[in-house]
Amino acid sequence: MTxxxxxxxxxxxxxxxxxxxxxxxxxxxxxxxxVSAGDRPYALRLxxxxxxxxxxxxxxxPTEVRALLxxxxxxxxxxxxxxxxxxxxxxxPRRPRWLLLANGTPPLALAFHELxxxxxxxxxxxxxxxxxxxxxxxxxxxxxxxxxxxxPIVDLPAVRELVHRLTGHQSVPxxxx
Length: 177
Prior knowledge:
Elements: H1 3-17, E1 29-37, E2 40-45, E3 49-54, E4 68-74, E5 77-83, H2 84-87, E6 98-102, E7 108-112, E8 114-122, E9 126-130, E10 140-146, E11 149-154, H3 156-169
Parallel strand pairs: 2-11, 5-7
Antiparallel strand pairs: 1-2, 1-8, 3-6, 4-5, 6-7, 9-10, 10-11
Protein name: Purine-binding chemotaxis protein CheW
InterPro entries: CheW-like_dom_sf (IPR036061), CheW-lke_dom (IPR002545)
Domain CheW-like: 29-165
């Protein structure tokens, strides 16, 4: 098939998709992003995020907080960017490539190294409860069972609370500073 033929087919499929009923996600599933932060595998709940961006410029800030990488601009808003690996207490081997905008206010972006894949898993593959894998207490909540192993699930609201403490509102564990 020629390039023009493929473009015409894609255009037709795109136009036809607006006439079809909206797809509904299956009940009993959860959508996750499988990521790597500090060379460790994690999962993030897609419902707790509002966007994922690769290679976004981050302007460094002078700071004593090891996890604060700086700020980035998103739709005219300046957003602080924190390294997820550093927040979870891991060494940071290199500058992260990906930024995830967390739902909620104030705006918050978390940087991680690799976006491994998108997952839609049955709820039965998610083990709720406090997750293992280290990190500050409460930042990992549950595990997801996958064919290639288990991944701790990062609780983004708990990470937001940790960042809130890092900004001086509450005491912070020494390993995160």
